[in-house]
Design a protein that fits this description.
heterodimer, A: 445 residues, Alpha-Beta Plaits, B: 245 residues, alpha/beta, seven-stranded parallel beta sheet
């Protein structure tokens, strides 16, 4: 048994480790007392869910996983914060209900979905997860328990959506599920030759399709830069869909770390080439399993081990519409220049900004790229940040591991409002994470 | 099936109750905290359309309440045919050595009272021609070890009792199932460093549900622990005195 004072290690998805007083809890109301942070399944890439110091108590929520109520008429679902999206899909897809917003992995808790204010392929239609919340119960830094909603304690509600767990421990959440026509997806996809065509394709597909996104090649330069596969989807109609429910998919687990050199510019280039070629030049269409549409990477458990022990980070930014169509192209030029290999990169056009005070998306183009951690990664992130700040864009806290406090303030005019909310609800800044110390100016003893 | 789960609000019991209910069985939850029971009942009900869930208070530390709770369960289900017992107390050996009052409670609850509860269930099931009694013991009851001197002793006694039940009453229709979980990541083991081959409650529950279906008298979960305990069982005394587990 580990000595409590020594703490236990926890990892972010990018393999960064933090040590703290980790408490796996099935009773959040009891265990969040005096805690500095709550964390779900640890799928945020950087240090958002890591303890700031070894003495900080961090509550792990996935054992608090009960459904508290479900209304089959209105679709309102109330759950404990550790309830996992994977479980939600298993229980509700075949009954033709789905979360209004899903991120690219189903191994997240509902509490985490709120704290990151996740967005998905339907962002241009449905906005972020926070837009669909109807109620939350939180434990505040002063140990009080409060409820908030779009009608009560709205300032706390808005600060908590996308607030990275820094406004209170999320105990229970209620949100409105979406009725779907079948548990299968109708998908169409096509090869896109370069970044300009990609931006055009996303813009044209947006009004017609509830879900759009693209995989882009982030290694190729010149004429091929930003080529990729554009994907569009909607829920299949009852007539199109197979009679049976989507079966559980077999899972493959990456059993150990690949060596860090396994991912190099050669393998990344080869992977991108293959991925592009495999699709073929003809457009495709048909009914697909929702897991392959929403969660292609979940098919390999612990795929993060593919980057080796040194781990990786993801750089995700949104470049506003106002920056013009040339901005994504310039961004890719900058990115490919670093020579940091990345097997895959995701592009998506975002809709309106959500109600969350620090919610990530804004109208414009979002680009997400995995970067292995190498000696030049922090410098590359700083360069990319400089570009994003100049264009009036911002990056996603849930993915970040290297952004400086100065850069973050420069890209977040909304920080003043967030600070104000924290001044009211946690004036002593008892709630904190490794990330909030690194980037938001929180201090540790 | 009509199933009673004693201790079904938390950990492995929660996972077993869910899987049994989702598979189409009616479930009664017994536990000592009504608010917890209500939350778990709501959780079960939302997991499929239809099906019956009921809850009744029952405290493993209060033997005199067992009969009324089982009467109520019988009433709600129209005579249950399967009972799963996961209720029990736990503390680390250090804590039990330092706190004799709690040690006494653990000894009473995990052995004496659990046996008394099973005896009550046994009589009911035998009177209606049989049924299944599935009880969570532990790998800690397989061999005396340093970290589980007291807790392990209660589980050893329980395993012994369950084995004998199987020998004596299987022919009369009572299927006794002794579940021996190894290290499983639940709130009970929170704060302990998980060893290799630590299990998840859902995985354990799948093994238990299969055992109930097949009537397997004894299962280890995760299954690897059968092998681990076999090896530990063969270690000579002088080794057991030296090693820490």
């Amino acid at each position: 048994m580990a000595e409590p004072s020594k703490g236990l290690p926890v990892e972010g998805w990018g393999r960064m480790v933090g040590v703290g007083q980790i408490v796996a809890s099935d009773d959040l109301e009891r265990d969040t007392k005096g805690a500095a942070l709550s964390r779900g399944l640890g799928r945020s890439y950087g240090d958002s869910s890591l303890p700031a110091v070894v003495g900080d108590k961090v509550v792990q929520t996935p054992l608090a996983d009960r459904i508290l109520s479900f209304d089959t008429v209105t679709g309102l679902l109330k759950v404990e914060a550790g309830f996992c999206l994977d479980e939600l899909n298993r229980l509700f897809l075949h009954r033709r209900w789905f979360t209004p917003v899903t991120p690219g992995t189903k191994f997240v808790t509902v509490g985490g979905m709120v704290a990151s204010d996740v967005h998905g392929k339907n962002h241009h239609r449905n906005g972020c997860f926070g837009e669909h919340l109807t109620w939350m119960k939180l434990r505040l830094a002063n140990d009080e328990i409060v409820e908030c909603s779009p009608y009560a304690n709205t300032d706390l509600f808005d600060a908590t959506i996308g607030g990275m767990g820094l406004t209170g421990h999320i105990l229970e959440v209620e949100f409105r599920m979406e009725r779907i026509s079948s548990p299968w997806i109708w998908m169409e996809s096509q090869q896109v030759p370069n970044i300009n065509a990609f931006l055009r394709g996303l813009k044209e597909a947006g009004p017609k399709w509830p879900m759009t996104m693209g995989w882009i090649d982030c290694v190729s330069k010149g004429k091929l830069m930003g080529r990729g596969i554009l994907m569009m989807g909607r829920w299949a109609t009852a007539a199109e869909a197979p009679k049976k429910s989507p079966p559980a998919k077999p899972k493959f687990t990456l059993p150990f770390d690949l060596p860090s050199w396994a991912l190099n510019s050669f393998t990344a280039r080869a992977f991108n080439e293959l991925y592009y070629r495999k699709h073929g030049s003809k457009p495709k269409c048909g009914v697909v399993h929702p897991d392959s549409f929403f969660y292609p990477l979940d098919a390999i458990h612990h795929w993060n081990r593919g980057y080796g022990k040194k781990g990786f980070t993801q750089y995700q930014c949104v470049l506003p519409e106002a920056a013009g169509l040339s901005a994504p192209r310039e961004f890719l030029e900058l990115l490919t220049g670093f020579g940091l290999a990345s097997p895959l990169c995701v592009i998506k056009d975002c809709g309106a900004q959500g109600r969350g005070l620090l919610s990530f998306p804004m109208p414009g183009t979002s680009i997400a790229v995995d970067l292995p951690v190498r000696s030049n990664t922090p410098a590359a992130v700083a360069e990319l940040n400089k570009f994003v700040i100049a264009k009036g864009g911002r990056m996603y806290l849930t993915k970040d591991n290297f952004t400086s406090a100065e850069d973050f303030r420069a890209m977040e005019p909304r920080m003043a409002a967030f600070d104000q909310a924290r001044n009211k609800w946690d004036p002593q800044r008892k709630l904190r994470s490794a990330q909030s110390v690194r980037m938001l100016g929180d201090v540790t003893p | 099936m009509k199933v009673v789960v004693f201790g079904g609000t938390k950990g492995m019991g929660r996972a077993v109750a869910r899987q049994l209910f989702e598979a189409g069985n009616d479930v009664v939850l017994l536990g000592r905290n009504q608010e917890e029971l209500d939350r778990s009942a709501a959780d079960l009900s939302a997991r499929r359309d239809g099906g019956k869930v009921a809850t009744f208070l029952c405290d493993l530390e209060q033997v005199e309440g067992f009969d009324a709770a089982l009467d109520a369960a019988d009433g709600a289900l129209g005579n249950f045919d399967t009972v799963v017992v996961t209720a029990g107390l736990f503390a680390t050996q250090d804590k039990l050595e330092a706190d004799p009052v709690f040690a006494h409670r653990v000894l009473l609850a995990n052995f004496t009272n659990t046996v008394m509860f099973c005896e009550n269930v046994r009589k009911r099931l035998l009177s209606r021609g049989g049924g299944t009694l599935c009880v969570f013991s532990s790998v800690a009851g397989d061999r005396g070890r340093k970290p589980v001197v007291i807790y392990g002793a209660t589980k050893a006694g329980l395993t012994h009792y369950l084995d004998s039940l199987d020998y004596k009453f299987r022919a009369a229709g009572l299927k006794t199932i002794c579940v021996k979980p190894g290290f499983v990541k639940t709130a009970m083991t929170a704060g302990l460093k998980p060893p290799p081959f630590a299990g998840e409650p859902e995985g354990v529950a799948r093994i238990v549900v299969r055992a109930i279906k097949k009537g397997t008298p004894q299962v280890y979960a995760p299954p690897m622990w059968r092998l681990i305990m076999m090896v530990i069982g063969m270690l000579p005394r002088f080794v057991m005195r030296r090693i820490g587990f």
